[in-house]
Amino acid sequence: MKIGVRRGLRRGGAACLAALLVLLVSCGAPKEPKNLISKEETETREVNFFSPMEKTDPDAENVARTASDLTIAMAEERLGVSVAYRTYTAENYQDKTYDEVSMDRVRSNMDDLYLLNPDTILILAAEGELMDLSGLDCAKNLREIIHTANTVDGKLVAIPQEVVAYGLFVNVDLFKRYDLSLPETPEDFLECCRVFQENGIETPVGANRWWLETFVFAQAYADLYNGGNTAAEIAALNSGEARYSDYMRPGFEFLRTLIDRGYIDAEQALVSEAIEGEGPDFLAGKTPIVMAYWGAANTETAYGKTDFEMQVIGFPSSRGQMPVMPMTGFAVGAHSEHVEDAMAVLDIIASDEALQLYAETNRVISPSKNVQVECVPALKPLSDRIEEGVYVLGSNAGMQVEQWGNTCLIVRQLLGGASVEACMEEFDRLQDEAIGQGD
User: Fold this and answer.
1) Cβ(249)–Cβ(219) under 8 Å?
2) CA distance to 136, 245, 270, 423, per residue, from 426 (Å)
3) What is the average per-residue pLDDT within 397-421?
4) How far is CA 370 from CA 68, 364, 393, in A?
5) What is the C-alpha to C-alpha distance for residues 215 and 205, in angstroms, rounded to an integer?
6) 5: part of which helix (H) or strand (E)?
7) Could you tell me the pLDDT band of residue 26, with boundaries at 50, 70 and 90?
8) Beta 113-116 vs 329-332: how paired, if at all?
9) Which of 26, 169, 223, 310 is deepest in the core (most CB within 10 A)?
10) What is the DSSP letter of 183?
11) pLDDT value at position 10?
């Protein structure tokens, strides 16, 4: 099977016109034919966009599109361009992940505009494969968190349409039943799990193989991002003066405790996909706690419709409930065929007008400091912390060691039976390699 492509381009008119011109010239027509449509009017400007999303037929009228599609339609109309979707589907690539495929495509200049995950943003930016977006008009309105997360060597290399925040989704009814307060610290969390287990809830925390790193980030970087010394601490990590393993150790020891006490089923988590594995038990009221991203609270196919009171809170940390925020983003290939048009498209889809439309449609946190949307009640605790400026980043392009992907993989090693010490040695290896001290 070939990768799905939705072009919606009108090349037939241009081809016919070219044939007509050849015919006229060959028949001795005047050198300057009159009343012919100009070349500029017949050529279709296109921007090739690679993403994991499918798109409805761009030529169809009155077809409901996703929030992202609506903003791209806005850019198409205003710029007179056609955005051709080239989409990733797992069955087409078999063992290759979206990240692997997207990196290959950027390096091969196969597309113009890309939706990238945080780990690939850092890798490709370090290779000089992504355009600097800091000069775009939309960049002036971005929250500081976006600049912090997606700036490499002084260049803003990716801009998201939403700020993805992860939190703990909790069954408030079960907490009330056992007279438990919602946890603030790691110690609080362990006590809640103990009470749940003693009351017959064998596995209090529903987990999957992707998102347990959120517990680690909350504990590792609570002080780094909220202690007023962020730049200096990151500089020390990048130079090797400070060690990632020292930051990560408490979070991994916490996960080890959850596993050893049976609060998390490590074997099940290791083979479970996000939401698919833990979701049914949470929705059935059997599991009090799961972890997920902001949008899952808005989506009925995830946790947007429960039969119990649900709240979304931050992960336990020394500074209380802590949201964890990784950054995806739209990026433009530095050597793309249609760089200027791609930059113009991105400037529109990340404008305040487009982001307002996107945020209202999906009810998410906007990357623009000028766009505010009321969240659903369940998200209010997490939203309040973020608006207070209390959070940690799960990805930061200013760190030489990529965070989100690497930590996820090392957590999987822990789930598979690796010791905390072995996991810390892996962080040390990655750090030494990143700063040129490895073998």
Assistant:
1) no
2) 39, 8, 19, 5
3) 93
4) 19, 14, 21
5) 12
6) strand 5-6
7) very low
8) antiparallel
9) 169
10) P
11) 28
Res 25 pLDDT > 90: no
- Please give the pLDDT value at position 89: 66
Long-range contacts of 173-182 (CB under 8 A, 24+ apart): 173/285, 173/308, 173/309, 174/201, 174/285, 174/288, 174/308, 175/288, 182/311, 182/313, 182/321, 182/381
CB 393 within 8 A of CB 384: no
Where is pLDDT greater, at 129 or 35? 129
Q: Rounded distance, CA 103 to CA 426, Å?
A: 24
Taking the C-alpha atoms of residue 216 and residue 224, their distance in angstroms, rounded to an integer, is 13
β-bridge pairing 166-171 and 310-313: antiparallel
What tokens were used for 314?
């931050």
With vertex at residue 251, the alpha carbon angle to CA 249 and CA 254, rounded to the nearest 5 degrees, is 110
Mean pLDDT for the stretch of residues 237-251: 96
CA 182 centroid distance within chain: 27
Query: What per-residue confidence (pLDDT) applies to 117?
Result: 86
Token digits of residue 94: 């078999």
What pLDDT is attached to residue 410? 96
C-alpha distance from residue 141 to each of 125, 149, 281, 330, 371 (Å): 22, 15, 41, 16, 9
Question: What is the share, in percent, of the chain residues with pLDDT greater than 90?
Answer: 66
Kind and range of the H or E run holding 173? helix 172-177
Contacts of 439 (CB under 8 A, 6+ apart): none
Nearest CA to 394 among 243, 194, 192, 251?
Answer: 251
Parallel/antiparallel/unpaired status of strands 5-6 and 289-293? unpaired
Q: How far apart are CA 336 and CA 420, in angstroms?
A: 43
221 contacts 214 by C-beta, under 8 angstroms: no
Strands 392-393 and 324-325: parallel
Token output for 71: 């903003």
Q: Which of 250, 251, 265, 253 is nearest to 204 (CA)?
A: 265
Q: Which residue has the tokens 């196969």?
A: 110
Paired with 311 in beta bridges are 170
Element (H, E) at 82: strand 81-87
| N-terminal to C-terminal alpha carbon distance within the chain | 42
Amino acid at 372: Q
CB 237 within 8 A of CB 258: no
Q: What is the H or E stretch that residue 168 is in?
A: strand 166-171
Q: What span, in angstroms and rounded, lies between the C-alpha atoms of 116 and 102?
A: 7
